[in-house]
Amino acid sequence: MQTSLDTAAGALSLPQPYLLFLGDTTESGFAKTAYGLRDWAPEKCVGEYALPAAKVSTGLKVLTPAEAAAKGARSLLIGVANSGGIIPASWIPALAEALEAGLDIVSGMHVRLSDVPGLAELAERLGRQLIDVRDPPRNLLIGNGRKRSGKRLLTVGTDCALGKKYTALAISRAFADRGVDVDFRASGQTGIMIAGGGIPMDAVISDFEAGAAEMLSPDADPAHWDIVEGQGSLLHPAYAAVSLGLLHGSQPDVIVVCHQPGREQMLGTPGYAVPSIEEAIDLNLRLGARTNAAIRCGGVSFNTSHLGEEEAIALMASESERLGLPVADPIRGGEAFARLVDNCLA
Fold it and tell me: What is the DSSP string of 37-89?
C-alpha cells in the first residue's frame, strides 16, 4: 500500500514516531540516516532495532518491533544508506516482523519496498503501508515562475555532501528561537524523514524539477520563511540539473553557500576541482535572479568537523573578512553563526 500525499504542501505524510532499523550495518557512515534523525528529530524516535551482526548504534533504547509498537511507534524506519541503496535478504525477516507487530515501513533506499520478495503481499494482508520516501508526488506540474508570497532561504553548495541539510535545519531552528514563523522544507530522503514530509528532488523527472520546488514551498504569509534544503551543486558535473531546478523553483530571497574547507576534488568525479566560494555565490545569484531578481547571499556555512576548534574559528574569521560575508559552522554555533542568522534575516 502506498502512503497518501499532502498535496497542499507537496509532501508525503509519514507515520511517526519511528523505530530506527540499523540492519546488520558495521560502518557508522552507512547509518547516517539514523544518526540524522537522532540528532535533529529525537522526539520522533522511540528506539532502535538491529540484527545481531550490527556494529553501530544510535545510543537510543533497544526495542523489538512489538515493544516499540507498545510504546506508540507507528513505523519501522530504515536508518541505513548503504552502497547502492539495497535491501539485502538478511533484513527481510526483520521487516516482516515489524509488519506483523503493527508497524508500517518507511524506506529511503533505491530499491523499492514493494520489490522485496513477499513483503508487499504481507503488507497487503495486514493492512500496513510500505512507504518509499524516494517516490515523488504523482500530480507534479511544470514550473510557472510565478512569484509566490512569503520568504525563502535555500542552502546551496560548492559540492555534494558537505552540510546543506544540517545548515538548513540549524538555520530553521535559529529562526524559530527568534520567534520567526518558519518551516524547514525537505528535498532529500533523510530530510523528509526528519521533517515528516517533503519531496525527493533527485527522484523527480527533470521537466518537473522546478514545479516540484514550487509545490514544496507554496504561497505563505509575507512574514513567513521557508528554509529549503539544497541538493547537489550547480557546479557538479553529475548533479547540477537537480540543483538548478531547485534554485529556479524555490525562488530564494536568500542563499547560504555551504563549503568544506580543504576538499579539493568534487565528490565522485575525480579530475574536477571544487570551485571557489566566490564562483558558487556568483553562479547561484546569476541563475537564481531568473525567478527572483532580489536574490542575495546571506553568508557562508563551513563544515569544519575535520578541524580543531581554534583552527576552525581562525579560518572562519579570516574567510569572513576576505569575502565580506558572515562565515560560520552551524554545528559549532556561537557568535559567528548568530551573525550569519542576523544577515539572513536583515
Answer: HHHH-GGGEEEEEE-TT-----SSPB--HHHHHHTT--EEEE----GGG---G
Q: For the chain, what are the domain ranges?
A: 5-132, 151-345
Nearest Cα to Cα of residue 19 among 77, 97, 95 = 77
Hey, what's the cell of 301? 556555512
CA distance 113 to 18: 17
Q: Are 190 and 32 in contact (CB under 8 A)?
A: yes
Q: What is the DSSP letter of 333?
A: -
Q: Let me know if domain 5-132 sits in CATH 3.40.50.720.
A: yes
* Closest by Cα among 31, 15, 18 to 77: 18
Is residue 143 helix, strand or coil? coil
- Please report the pLDDT score of residue 196 as a whole number: 80
CATH topology of domain 151-345: Rossmann fold (3.40.50)
Could you tell me the mean pLDDT of each successive run of 10 residues in the chain, 346 residues long? 36 84 90 91 96 96 98 97 85 98 95 94 97 90 96 97 94 98 95 89 94 97 98 94 97 98 92 97 98 98 96 98 98 97 97
Question: What is the C-alpha separation between 13 and 332, in angstroms, rounded?
Answer: 32
Q: What is the pLDDT of residue 12?
A: 60
The whole-angstrom separation of Cα 261 and Cα 259 is 6
The reported pTM is: 0.86
Q: Residue 33 and residue 36: Cα distance in Å, rounded?
A: 5
* 5-132 and 151-345: identical CATH topology: yes
Angle formed at CA 92 by CA 2 and CA 126, multiple of 5 degrees = 45
Alpha-carbon gap, residue 76 to 108, rounded angstroms: 12
